[in-house]
Specification:
5-stranded mixed beta sheet, 18% strand, 17 helices, alpha+beta, globular, 454 residues, disordered N terminus, 4-stranded parallel beta sheet, 31% helix
């Protein structure tokens, strides 16, 4: 660990480089490299996103409760580095014990950060939603928070900043919640690259014949048990086949598109409850749905690029049980492949009825049949160890790292396995366990765990 002298101004100047070398990316969502968000001017508010709006996930709340010192120190490092005028810690007000813990900890350290207590709505943790709730200024459509003078990082990312800067520890661990239709939900710390099935086997959870969702029940994706944990994996949720929470995830795309063309009744519920539409974005899912059957013009289809894929439209709004979210995903993928972009639009006006159309989390959980699974998932103290890990060279937005190891090499936990090409957006990747390299490709490095003799 660095001394207080080492943590002075000169060391702080190197923060962006340190975060790149230590592999720090957004611990949820797309995994944007954290160093690339940091600027020395134009940032008025730095927001720590602790809202954790996805149901059934507990990583953020458990880190705030169990790693409060590291989180606050990491947040101070970031706020000081960019020279933000204000640091804001946002979390749901219903978690009163954590709110009190943060307030007491801020008082002890004499940190002048503000606390913003969110309501219990979904998707309160969406960057555009959260920034507006705090600043009362909308982020431009297709824009990012820096356009209104704000930067947002989630709690685990900020914890990783502390570890990278103060302890010079690379990102080789991931906190994930194991939940859903399981007897005892837990939150665990696992090495990046461990296969999901190994985690579940160690915990003793039977997943045979069940559906595994990586992430939350609203924005996650169906995965195989053989998939490795990455730096952005937030949770593994287990459900029975046919459960309402997974029906839209598992339905074939052709079936989703066919129903969009034939079954949409143009009721507008998907649009009237869309969080981005309510913020003033030109996103009307009901029009995109009808465009699947009739030519509504490129502007209608292009508006799909504004979709955050939060899932409110399919899980909460549609009386026909259609999936505007997956239709938008399909259209977005085609438009991006064609090079179509949606230019940021700043002159947006938040719709007057927004405050009355928010989606209560409890009601959402009841709608998709997961309210009974909303149980505390405590963080286990010990790290789960892996026999073998598959470290992907690309776990984030940007370019993949280039492997610098060869088959047969012995690596020690924390060693660099791949480096980002100079001048490119990306971060280094590291060995999460000690052992022998048994496979190397442009996509991944596989390490078999073993102790080195002598």
């Amino acid at each position: 660990m660095l001394s207080r002298f080492d943590l002075g101004v000169r060391a702080l100047e190197d923060l962006a480089l340190i975060l790149q070398e230590m592999g720090v990316v957004g611990a949820g969502g797309a995994g944007f490299p954290t160093y690339a968000k940091l600027r020395k001017e134009g940032i008025n508010e730095y927001i720590a996103n602790g809202a954790e709006c996805e149901p059934l996930l507990w990583v953020t709340k458990e880190l705030l409760a169990k790693k409060i010192f590291q989180f606050l120190e990491g947040f101070k490092i970031l706020v000081d580095y960019v020279g933000a005028k204000r640091g804001v810690i946002a979390l749901k007000g219903k978690y009163s014990s954590i709110v009190k813990l943060i307030k007491d900890s801020l008082s002890e350290r004499n940190y002048a950060f503000d606390i913003f207590e969110c309501g219990d709505y979904y998707p309160e943790g969406d960057e555009h939603v959260l920034v507006y709730e705090i600043l009362r200024r909308p982020v431009p459509a297709a824009g990012i928070p820096i356009m209104v003078g704000a930067v947002v990082n989630n709690v685990e990312t900020i914890y990783n900043v502390y570890r990278a800067f103060v302890e010079r520890a690379p990102v080789i661990d991931k906190f994930i919640t194991i939940g859903g239709d399981v007897r005892n939900p837990v939150t665990v710390r696992v090495p990046v690259g461990i296969k999901v099935k190994e985690v579940l086997d160690i915990i003793g959870i039977n997943y045979d014949g069940k559906v595994l969702i990586e992430g939350g029940p609203m924005t996650g994706r169906v995965i195989s048990p053989d998939v490795p944990v990455t730096k952005t994996t937030g949770g593994i949720l287990i459900f029975e086949k046919g459960h309402p929470a997974v029906s839209q995830f598992t339905a074939p795309l052709d079936y989703i598109l066919k129903r969009a063309r034939t079954c949409c009744i143009q009721c507008r519920y998907c649009t009237d409850q869309c969080p981005r539409y309510l913020l003033g974005h030109d996103l009307e899912p009901h029009r995109i749905m009808i465009s699947m059957a009739f030519d509504m013009g490129i502007e209608v289809r292009k508006s799909a690029l504004l979709c955050s894929e939060c899932g409110v439209c399919e899980a909460y709004s549609c009386p026909q049980l259609l999936s505007p979210r997956r239709v938008n995903q399909y259209i977005k993928a085609k438009l991006i492949q064609e090079g179509v972009r949606y230019p940021p639009k700043a002159d947006i006006v938040v719709r007057e009825d927004r405050e009355y159309r928010k989606v209560p989390t409890k009601r959402l959980m009841m709608r998709i049949g997961i309210y009974e699974f909303d149980r505390y998932a405590p963080l286990l103290e010990d790290r789960i160890e892996a026999k073998e890990v598959t470290i992907l060279m690309k776990q984030h937005i940007g370019v993949p790292a280039t492997p610098i190891v060869s088959v047969g090499d012995y690596v020690v936990e924390g060693d660099v396995l791949g480096k980002v090409p100079e001048g490119k957006l990306g971060v280094n990747v590291h060995a999460s366990i000690s052992g022998k390299v048994i496979s190397v490709s442009d996509e991944a490095v596989v390490i078999k765990g073993e102790r080195k003799n002598g």
